[in-house]
Amino acid sequence: MKFNRGYRLIPIIIAVSVVLGVFIGNFYSRRSSGKQMGVFNTNSNKINALLRIVEEQYVDTIDMNTIVEDVLPNILAELDPHSMYIPAKNLEAVNSELEASFSGIGVAFTIQNDTIHINSVIQGGPSEKVGLLPGDRIVTVNDSLFVGDKVDNEIAMSTLKGPKGTEVKVGVKRRSEEELLHFNIVRDDIPQQTINATYMINNDWGYIQITKFGQTTYIELLSSIAKLNHQKSKGLIIDLRGNTGGFMEPAIRAANEFLEQGRLIVYADGRKFPRMDEFADGTGSCQRVPLVVLVDEGSASASEIFAGAIQDNDRGFVVGRRTFGKGLVQQPIAFSDGSGLR
């Protein structure tokens, strides 16, 4: 009987032991993890709690989305001068500056006296096909007046750009015409050029101006080099003045054209990232070509990577003023609402 009673108690003892073990384990786990995560959780919860309190208890009705949009840039401003928050309405325009093409009407313009002044018309683009000319002023869009204080560069770009195949009607004032001219323009893909000038400055030296490092820069550079080689160029001048940067990869590939195999182009590391080294692979077509790089205070980011690689490897002469000094590699991070960080 004693044996049977003890046998029946064994499952109960085991169950109680398991419950006690789980309880004790959770207790010590919470204490140890709390020490590590307490600060982070407290601060992040404090921000969330503040926003919730404002939304639920503030005396007036407010737009929480507007508050969040205004707060995010201020938080990033405490980190460094380069990290930034880009609202959804601006992100597409920011990215399109470095992409191979965008959809629009194919003009370069400035805002003068609250009016869109066309500076140039892209050859073969939609506007040239319908007859727009440099010097024209756009005063109506889709039969509505489009002049005045409301017209700025951002609004003008968002209005004239649009999906490929869509139509926009513009009213144009031309000096040689008394009446307003009307054009129906079908938007199309507009190629973006990152090299604005390629020519011989004398019998020996070729000149290439790179305005930014975008998706097509490396291919454009190869084309420019081939053009100058055909004209018997003996040396190259690469003009990076005012080039604020762009994508890192095209800058690395461009530098690779001028460096011998094994030469360090750039390295990057960070608190959460292992060191990354980029070396020349020896396939460059201009490894022995005399080289001059022009820079100024507007040369930044990817431009500094290119110029720095040339200077550090004693590959050519870097001439000009002190560059911007942005020794950072930025990673774009997208949010689900279309906004992002950089």
Short descriptors:
single chain; 342 residues; alpha+beta; 2-enoyl-CoA Hydratase, Chain A, domain 1; Pdz3 Domain; 5-stranded mixed β-sheet; 8 helices; 18 strands; flat
Question: How would you describe what is shown here?
Answer:
37% of the residues lie in helices and 25% in strands. Helix 7 runs parallel beside helix 8 (302-312). It folds into three domains: 1-62; 64-100 and 192-342, 2-enoyl-CoA Hydratase, Chain A, domain 1 (Alpha-Beta Complex); 102-191, PDZ domain (Pdz3 Domain, Roll), CATH 2.30.42. It has eight helices and 18 strands. The protein is of the alpha+beta class. The strands form five sheets. Strands 3, 4, 5, 6, 7 and 8 form a six-stranded antiparallel sheet that branches. It has a five-stranded mixed sheet with strand order 10-11-12-15-16, with helices on one face. It has a three-stranded antiparallel sheet with strand order 1-18-17.
Query: What composes the largest sheet?
Result: 6 strands, antiparallel
Query: Mean pLDDT, as a whole number?
Result: 85
The CATH homologous superfamily of the largest domain is named: 2-enoyl-CoA Hydratase, Chain A, domain 1
User: How does CATH name the architecture of the largest domain?
Assistant: Alpha-Beta Complex
Quote the distance from N terminus to C terminus: 77 Å
Q: How big is the Rg?
A: 30 Å
Category from helices, strands and their pairing: alpha+beta
Unreliably modeled segments: 31-40
